[in-house]
Structures are given as structure tokens and as C-alpha cells.
Amino acid sequence: MNTSGPLFIAQEALCFYPISTIYDSCPRYLFYALLLASCVTRWTGWLADVFLGAAATYAGTAAIESFILVASRSKQEDPGPVTIPYLPGNTTLSSSFPQLVTQTDTIFVQPAALELDGDAVMAIVVTGYLVFLPLQSWSRVLTHERARNLLFYLWNILMMAGSICSLVYAANKNESPTQYMFCYPDIPPYQSTTNDGWQDYWRPSTWNNSVWETFSNITKWGEIGDICYNPCFNTSQILRQASTLQSWVPDEGSEVSHGTKFWDKLIYSKRYIYSLIILCFILNVILLTFKFLPYQSRIPSAQIVVIWKERGSIWRSLKEELHDSFFFTAPGTELKQRISRPETPVSFWSRVRPLFTIRFMKAFLRVLADVGILFGLVFSMIVSPLTTIAYVAWIEWWIYNDGPSQESPQQVGQWSYLVSIALLLVSAAILTLKYRLASKSELDGEISRLRADLEKLELRREARRESETNGLTENISEN
């Protein structure tokens, strides 16, 4: 080794747990495709159930992991100073060490590691929430039953909680301290290295003493089993094995070189994306609230085509209610006739007095609610898809710049999910043809079971009708 140069050098590094196989690129893209297929095929029944069920269970797993990530964040230890050999800014070592620390003789070491699963989980749960909430607000096909409505409510609550946890975790990610690796100047490291497990004797005292003792003793340096000394390898994560932790050194052409350029773009773009998400959330919650309130809206459907066809009747209905409530007068008065006769003088107060009546105010509020529902529905159908597309593009760009993937699409851990969905579709398609494939005895048995179920449903309906009748009778008797 060259003894005339510095004993060791320090360079910045990214320490991270790579995205887990289940959240890598192929499963994520399959999840996006399932969401799109659920929206397109929501009128087909069994096909939409397969797509929606597969997407919902996948997103549910991601939401549960977001809870664990937020709840299990370990407290970072205090930073410790490490003195390093001073290097000028024009040193030739920069060609071998792209993130070399120069023009300083002290750095602060605070071991930490990024959990890139947090980015993938955020991509899944927020995208799922941006799709599941509008589906409950718009689709009458998927929510025409109480059980389905309840299921959508529970799932949206789970997705909302997962989205909040993932966004909180992502916000804390930006506070992660800079990581360093220490290497011999004559032995440049690989771009990416992994950890085989941290040994306690690699850090006998302070970080400063540990680094200097390691590079002053070639025997001790050989015991670490790596080219460089990475303090971040002594961190741990509850959901990961220590051997999956990686230390990565971006080259000068990378977006994450030194982190400044990439993170500035990311933080700036967050404002627009989060604003769209909040707007989409508000619009769909308002629609969902009006949908389940005991209010009979004049908007005939949540489908734009139906609204456009009925636009004339909607407009006439709104106008007639305001007109009738304005000219409604108490018995014995002739305000409408007097206003219609120009020769009869009518005071200004007489003309505006109907605007302050309770009847007109109620009519105005109903018309205002219908107009709000109409505009909310139209803007929701425009904003929600655009928000989902913009968010998916943004978060995938973010994940792409996080670092190298753990697996390639050719590996079984990636394409196995696509095969599973395909087999599920084949099974569901065969089951939909069960009556065509069934024998005569199977059909007779199915008819008997359906008749028994029908009798049970009729008994339950009669019991509920009797209960409602008794309750109504009791209320009348009390009044």
C-alpha cells in the first residue's frame, strides 16, 4: 500500500434496505394494472371481483407494513466526531472515490439506514386509496349492497390509515443523517456492498477510535470482511435480516449524487402532488357524504353520460323549485299577481321579502347542494384519474432514483405474482361455467339448496318487516 498518502479516506454513501421482493417493480406494476382492470370491468361482476380482490389484499399487506414501520422506528444514537486525513479539493483520488470528502478534517458519524420498503408501501397504499375512494363515491355497481358498502368503508379506512402512516414515515426519511464509509485510498470499493452482520468488537469505544484502530492495524481491517468500514452496518430493522443491508456509492452522473439535486427536486414536487391528493380526497369525501345522507338529490346518476342526457330536466327541476318557492305566498295575498301587473306599484321590500322566507331558504339550500354534488362529481371524475396518474408517475420516479433493485423481472420472485393472478382468473372463469358443466344430479342438488336458501331469506324478510311494523305501531301509540 502507498504509505506516502493518507492512511484512509472517507466518502459519502447511501445505506439502505432494498425494496422487498413483494413490493418490487413487477408486483407494483401488476397492482396498478389490477386497479385499472377493476375500474374498466366493474360492470362484469365476477371479473371485477377477482381484480379488485387481488388488488385489495395486496394493498392491505402494504398498509399493515406501514403501521409496523411507523411503530418500530428505532431511536438514532447521538452523532460522534471522527477526524479524517485532510484532502484538497483537486485531489486525484476523486476519480476512484466519486463521493470523496475533501477540504475538511472532521466529520460526524451517526449510523442510520433507509428502509426503501417505505417508498414502495407509500406508492401502493396511496394509489389504492386514490382508486378505492372514488369507486365507492361513483360506482353504484360495486356499492349497491350494504355488505359491499361496509366492506368498502372498512377498506377505505385501512387505506387511509396506511396512507397517513406511510406519509409520516416518508417525511421522517428526509431527516436521515448523511452516511460515510472509510476505505484505504489504494483499494476503491465496489459501487454496492452488503453486510454479513456487525460484530461488537469492530467498535470497541468511540467511532473515532474505532476507525483509526481499524486502519492502523491491517489484521483488524481484514477481520471486518469488507473493503471499507461502514458504521451504518451496525443498524437493524425489525422486518429485515442484517445481511440484506446495503451500502451504495452513487457515481457523479447519478441523480442522487450528494443527494442535494435529487432531494431538492423531490421536495419541490411534493407540494403539487400532495395538493392534488388533498383536493381529490375532499371532493370524494363530500360526494360520499351526500351519497349516504338521507337526501334525495335531483342528480339522477353518478355517470357523466346519464347526467348529460338528463341535463335539461335537471336544469328545469332546479329552476322550478326556486321559482315556486320565490312566488309562494300565504293564503289571502296576491304578490305574484301584483308583481306581474306593472300598473300596480310594488315596494322594493315586497319584491325581496320572499328571499328571506324559510321556504325559499330551504329550496335554495337544496338547489345549492345539488349544484355542489354536480360540480363535485364532474371535478372528481376529472381530478381523481389525473391525480392517480400523476402520483403513480411521481412515486415511481422517486423509487427509481432510490437505488438499484433487489431483483430483476426475470426472477421467479417477480413474475410469480402475475402467474398467480392468471391462475386465479382461470379458476374463477371455470367456476362461472359450473352450471353449464354440471350434470343433471348436480343441477338438482343446486336447485334444492337454492330453494332452501330462498325460504330462509323470505323468513328473514318477514321477520324484519314484522319488526319494523311493530316499531312503527309503538311510535304512533306513544305520540
Structure description:
The chain has 479 residues and is of the alpha+beta class. The protein folds into two domains: 250 residues, no CATH class; 129 residues, no CATH class. 59% of the residues lie in helices and 6% in strands. It has 15 helices and seven strands. Strands 1, 4, 5, 6 and 7 form a five-stranded mixed beta sheet that branches. A two-stranded antiparallel ribbon has the order 2-3. Helix 2 crosses helix 3, helix 3 runs parallel beside helix 7 and helix 9 packs antiparallel against helix 12. The longest helix has 43 residues. The N and C termini lie far apart (100 Å).
What would the keywords be for this entry?
479 residues, alpha+beta, 2 domains, five-stranded mixed β-sheet, two-stranded antiparallel ribbon, 7 strands, 59% helix, 6% strand, elongated
Spell out the blueprint of helices and strands:
Elements (H helix, E strand, L loop, with lengths): L8 E9 L7 H16 L5 H26 L8 E4 L22 E4 L4 E2 L1 H22 L7 H28 L5 E5 L8 E3 L12 H10 L1 H6 L22 E3 L11 H33 L11 H6 L1 H16 L8 H6 L7 H5 L5 H43 L11 H21 L1 H4 L2 H39 L1
Parallel strand pairs: 1-4
Antiparallel strand pairs: 1-5, 1-7, 2-3, 6-7
Helix pairs in contact: 1-2, 1-3, 1-13, 2-3, 2-4, 2-13, 3-4, 3-7, 3-12, 7-12, 9-12
Short recap of the structure:
The chain is α+β, with helices and mostly antiparallel strands and 479 residues long.
N-to-C CA distance? 100 Å
Per DSSP E runs of 2 or more residues, the count of β-strands stands at: 7
Unreliable parts: 255-268, 329-335
Shape: elongated
**Helix-strand pattern, N to C?**
EHHEEEHHEEHHEHHHHHHHHH
Rounded to the nearest angstrom, the radius of gyration is 33 Å
Helix content: 55-70%
Oligomer: single chain
Number of domains: 2
Give the structural class.
Answer: alpha+beta
pLDDT averaged residue by residue: 78
Q: What does the largest sheet look like?
A: 5 strands, mixed
Number of helices: 15
How much of the polypeptide forms β-strand, as a percent range? 5-15%
Transmembrane segments: 120-138, 150-171, 272-293, 367-395, 415-433
Keywords: Coiled coil, Membrane, Transmembrane, Transmembrane helix
Coiled coil: 440-467
